[in-house]
Amino acid sequence: MSSEGHGHTHDGSEGPGHTHGPPPGMGPPPPPPTIDPFYQAAIDEQFNPVPVTFSPEQNDMAVCQEHKKVVCEDCGLDFHELNIFTKMIAASNPIAVPAPPNVVHPGRSQAVQKAKEEGNAAYKAKNWGLAIQHYNMSANIALSRNPWEPAALMRDEMAIIICNRSATFAAAEDYISALVDADVVIQLKRPWSKGHFRKAKALLGLGRLEEARDAVMLGLQFEPDSAEMLAFKKEIEDGIEKQQEAARSPIISSSATMA
Amino acid sequence: MASIPLLVPLTYITLLIGALYTFSKVYRKRTVARIAKLERWFPAHPERDTYISLLQLSPPPSEVLLKAALLRRAAADVQRIISLRDDKTALQALLQKGSIDDDLWNAFTAAEKELEAEIVEVVNEANSFREGWGQFIFASASEVVNNVKQRDMVMAIPKLRAEAEAKYGAPKAPKLKAITPAVAVHSPPEEPKPKNVSPISLNDRLTPARSPSPLATNGSSAPSSIATMTPPPSIKTELNGYSNSSAGTSPSPSVNGDVTGSPRAKSKTPGSASKARKRK
Q1: Cα–Cα distance, A25 to A52 (Å, whole number)
Q2: Segments in chain A below pLDDT 50
Q3: Given CB atoms, is B57 within the 8 Å cutoff of chain A?
Q4: How far is the alpha carbon of B207 from chain A, nearest alpha carbon, in Å?
Q5: Which of A198, A200, A231, B51 could bridge to A212 as Cys pair (CB 3.0-4.6 Å)?
Q6: Is-contact A184 B153, C-beta < 8 A?
Q7: Do B194 and A175 touch (CB under 8 A)?
Q8: Shortest CB distance from B227 goes to which of A78, A161, A169?
């Protein structure tokens, strides 16, 4: 049974400057947790070597050994995301260790907000194409966030951006894109009533009144007091009524003529 | 009283202890073999394998690459933690009802313990890169999992759009030029899905006609693995300026990490990988 819990060996290969003691002022460090050697052996036994190497020609990215490709179908390997992480970690800070989640560089959020506000301005000016461009730019920046930063930040930013984009699509009468965007907003933030509101608007634009009403009802479940939603719901229900009347009246008129 | 030679009790004691010793060894071996024979809860751990394979390379790769591999390994472990936690209550209920046999439950508990050992190992490895990283690597890893999930949602917009068009009919209004959704900064080419990606869902385990080599059969229920990020290749970023600014840095790997980095000694056994590393 080897000392599995120890982080490094004492075989004398370390220089004389290496000390074990904790920095002065700290108590003895807690002993590193030990791994049950049985499970350690199980893990070791499961090891299945992956034919990976790194290629100096491609900036030391991880590639498959045989074909030197980042994404290799023959080997069934895909190191693309690994290489992305590597780049991001290297670029993130000089120590090149992913920062803990509570450390966030504010620059990205500011850039996202700025682009989003430009989009809002274009929306107010009824310039739909430009507004969508700005929202896309803003979403691009938001997506480029380092993956180890708090996910809630990206979620909030994306939800607002995509919601605004859905509104723009709806205003431009591209209801399908509006619907897709609204669905994504709901996936990101289900309890947010605006997502359901946008979905209902898009469905209304597509002429699907019942589905629009379902979406509004779902949104009202999360926010029962929203005046906007209640007003919209009434609007949809009126629309449904009219639709049903229109469906009925030709029958009435035709039956009148028959009689 | 007849004199009994001293040898007799000694022989007796020796035989007794020998028998007990042999029995305990045999019994332990059998339990180990029994547990080892249990079907593994998780089929394979590709991120762990990648990390260890990278460690075993000589000359050793850049530290940043190793850190990235370790972070991905931690993220895969976080996904396993989540999946085990979700399955646990259901399994317990089924076990009490008697719908499943003990083997499945034993496999589950073995997987839990193995995951704990794996977590400790990851923390140790993280600390070996930088003292203290082990404390928050798993917090970072769970953020990574959530971020990747959200990113996948947004990247799936074109597919959703195609489905919606099929369902509701092509739009009457002319398509706005900017339909292309936001593209991730590093839009990869169309990639093959790696094989042992998602853990098997509980449903698949319980169906009797379970194939012995389970692969990802449950698409949507398991969270998409870190490795799959597949936006359609036809997306063009409109705003390459932004994408280049943040992705374009291709830093020389030797600058940042290796000032403090230590060459990774080649280690044959994965478990001793961290031990074999020299610390400066």
Answers
A1: 44
A2: 1-22
A3: yes
A4: 25
A5: A200
A6: yes
A7: no
A8: A78
Which alpha helices (DSSP H) does B57-132 contain, by range?
A: 63-97, 102-129
SS3 A250: helix
Query: Quick check: B38 and B106 in contact, CB under 8 A?
Result: yes
Q: Which residues of A touch B182 (CB under 8 A)?
A: 135-140, 142-143, 161
Q: Which of residues 154-193 of B touch A (CB under 8 A)?
A: 154, 156-157, 160-161, 164-165, 168, 171-173, 175-186, 188-189, 191-193
Model pLDDT for residues B190-235, shown as the tens digit of each residue: 444 444 444 555 666 666 544 443 443 343 334 444 433 434 443 3
Q: What is the rounded average pLDDT for all residues in chain B?
A: 71
pTM score, two decimals?
0.68
Contacts of B249 in chain A (CB under 8 A): 87, 90-91
pLDDT in tens, B132-173: 889 999 999 999 999 999 999 999 999 999 998 888 877 665
d(CA B251, CA A61): 11
- The pLDDT tens digits of the residues spanning A185-214 come to 999 999 998 999 999 999 998 888 888 999
Inter-chain contact B271–A43, Cβ cutoff 8 Å? yes
How far is it, in rounded angstroms, from Cα B149 to Cα B152?
Answer: 5
Q: Is A12 helix (H, G, I), strand (E, B) or coil?
A: coil
pLDDT at B226: 40
Residue of A201, A186, A202 whose CA lies nearest to A233 = A201
Spatial contact of A197 and A219, defined as CB atoms under 8 Å apart: yes
Residue type, A95: I
Binning pLDDT at 50, 70 and 90, where does residue B34 land?
confident
- Is the CA virtual torsion B75, B80, B81, B83 positive or negative? positive
The two most distant CA atoms of chain A are separated, in Å, by 110
Residue A168 and residue A119: Cα distance in Å, rounded? Answer: 9
Cβ of B62 and A60 within 8 Å? Answer: yes
